[in-house]
Amino acid sequence: LFSIQIEQPYPVTFKGAGVVRWIQNLGNNGIPPGLGIEITTMNEAEAKIYNQMFGQVIPFIPSAGRMSSNVAS
Description:
Blueprint: E1 2-6, E2 12-24, E3 34-42, H1 44-54, E4 67-71
Antiparallel strand pairs: 1-2, 1-4, 2-3
């Protein structure tokens, strides 16, 4: 399960289920800390907002500078 809060272009929280594909704890080679989540499910209302912001529901690979996350297994 995941809950991802995005602040830009406006605050929104996406909740759903997914698979963590990678975790970058410490920045290496100029890459900020972050993680990559392959989204498997998201409720319909949030998926619609996600679609408006990003084009379609696809695996989400966030930038640490753009979001904060709370990932639980």
